[in-house]
Amino acid sequence: MRWNRTRNGIGLLASSAALVFGGCASRSDQLVETNRSLQDQNLRLQEELREARAMLEERGSANSEARGLISQYQAQIASLEQQLDERDQTIREFGARLDQLDVQLDPATDRALSQLARQHPDLVSYDPERGMLRFNSDLTFDSGSAELKDEARRTLARLAQILNDPAAASLTIEIVGHTDNQPMSAATRQKHFSNLHLSTHRAVAVHKALQELGVAPERMIAAGRGPFDPLVPNNPKGGTPQNRRVEIFLRQGGFQGVQQAGVSDEGTIEIDRTPPPARGPDVTK
After folding, report:
1. CB neighbours of 249 closer than 8 A, spacing ≥ 6?
2. Which residues form the domain of 90?
3. How far is CA 146 from CA 157, 184, 197, 202, in A?
């Protein structure tokens, strides 16, 4: 019975060791967490190996079943150690790539964004290390709506001035909407269908407003994450306003070749550079 449980444990460990990392926004902390999990598995296998050897010594016989399990443990440990080495290398490579994506906003733009956040502390916050502005959705939009409030439009007008300044001309703008996981009302579902749609529609509303204010549309990209990237654990009954937000990330360079990024089965970082398929006109629109 004990050996059967151990075999089952080995199957689970082998399954865990084969996990594939996803999203670049598969972030480096996901790699670190998986690395830590592999190390924990390695320690457990080492302990079970010691127990098996101790049982052999107690019995004083060449138990073939126990010897087979020892061989399995040793193979599993060797495999995990190899994966740990590969993951360590992946983390180093991923960190090097992240270093290349440093925002490095010019001082004038950084000061202007900091001042904007100080002038509207309830509506917007600024993270200079990430080059990110976070808009409070509860003040940017009415509940269940993707229509910008007047104060939000005024703040975006000032942001557009900053982004249109020659000092910020090389920056690209990633607009990402987020919601909590509260169920939507029937009236809201008629317009937005789901929280994912609502978050995307809000990002598009910000995109459209900035474009109307003179920011070139080719500099911007809009996306929605719905409730799937919360800042704090979601509460189905509400009380999670931190998760209802629109984040604007400022980056150096363009969007070409960064539609999707991830980590392959072999542990190498890959970027999907496949262009989208050509589409004809949609006569239903």
Report:
1. 130, 131, 132, 173, 174, 176
2. 2-100
3. 17, 14, 10, 5
